[in-house]
Amino acid sequence: MKPKNSIQTVFLLASVAYFFAFVMTLGTSCKHEPLLDDLIMPIDSTDTLDTLIVVDTLPMGIPCNPDSIYFEAQVLPILISNCAKSGCHDVTSHEDGVILDSYANVMQTADVEPFNIDAGKLYEVITETDPDKKMPQPPNAPLTQEQVQIIANWILQGALDLSCNPNFGACDTVNVSFSQTLQPIINSHCKGCHSGSTPAGNISLENYSAVKTMALNGKLYGVISWSNNFSNMPKGGNQLDSCTVSKFKSWIDAGVLNN
Ligand code: HEC
Predict the structure, then answer these.
(1) Which atom, in ligand 1's list, is nearest to the CA of 90?
(2) CA pair distance 110, 125, nearest whole angstrom
(3) Distance 139 CA to ligand 1 centre (A)
(4) Which listed residue, 15, 71, 107, 154, has the most CB atoms within 10 A of its CB?
(5) pLDDT tens digits for range 175-213
């Protein structure tokens, strides 16, 4: 009987010791809860850029579905040229803690509620009627109805980071029209900064004749091809895909037509 008792005693002591050790661990782990600051640290936007370049250089990629909203191609350019500007929501200024320069930062800082446009802040501020709260703030122009709709549909589709290849199969640099092919790209990727009474760099890209001037002096192709001696445009954004850059080049080489 005795040995059994001492085994039981040892077992009991070990259990008590183990219990105290366990409680101590609990105590310490509580003190190591992540700080809020760690959780909302913005993600380095170059991470996203690297991933994108890989996707962009795939020979085929995925063909675009006209019913889907593609974040990098459709939503991000609107945010970059209207919101992620210096003094507003770029990574340096981060007004109200909101950074709108990449998918990761938008999802972390802009209060987007996937599938629900009424719950998050992003859709609310762009459709706000109170001029003090409406974004973008003057002198920046408000978003167009089409741009608001793109953002709404993106949220309603789950606020995903989908990507596709708009030139799936082939890159057509022959049939390039200013109004059909190039102007929509300028409107979504450049105009937010290069329009209005005080356009960025004092350069307007609002209409054909303004774009023509920049095409003829070589600056347009210089900035979109990220050539040395030129600023990289869109400023703070991803480079236009190589097929789109080739389309601009073929339009310039063909004589900058208003077609
Ligand atoms: C977020 C704002 C922003 C966006 C978006 C943007 N730009 Fe700019 N752009 C600027 C600023 C600021 C300057 C002047 C300072 C500089 O050169 O970096 C500038 C300068 C330029 C210049 C003159 C460069 C030179 O060397 O003189 C051209 C041309 C230009 N942008 C074209 C474009 C085109 C084309 C797009 C779209 C594909 C675009 N920009 C998108 C802010 C922007």
Answers:
(1) 1
(2) 10
(3) 18
(4) 154
(5) 999 999 999 999 999 999 999 889 999 999 999 999 999
Cα(74) to centroid(ligand 1), Å: 19
- The residue to which tokens 């770029």 are assigned: 90
Structure tokens at 87: 């003094």
Rounded to an integer, what distance in angstroms lies between the CA atom of residue 89 and that of residue 56? 26
Amino acid at 185: I
Token pair for residue 194? Answer: 């290069």
**Rounded distance, CA 31 to CA 222, Å?**
54
Rg (CA), the chain: 26
Please list, residue by residue across 92-130, b when 16 or more beta carbons sit within 10 angstroms of its beta carbon and e when fewer do.
eebeeebbbbbbbbbebbbbbeeeebeebebbebbeeee
pLDDT tens profile 99-129 = 999 999 999 999 999 999 999 999 999 999 9
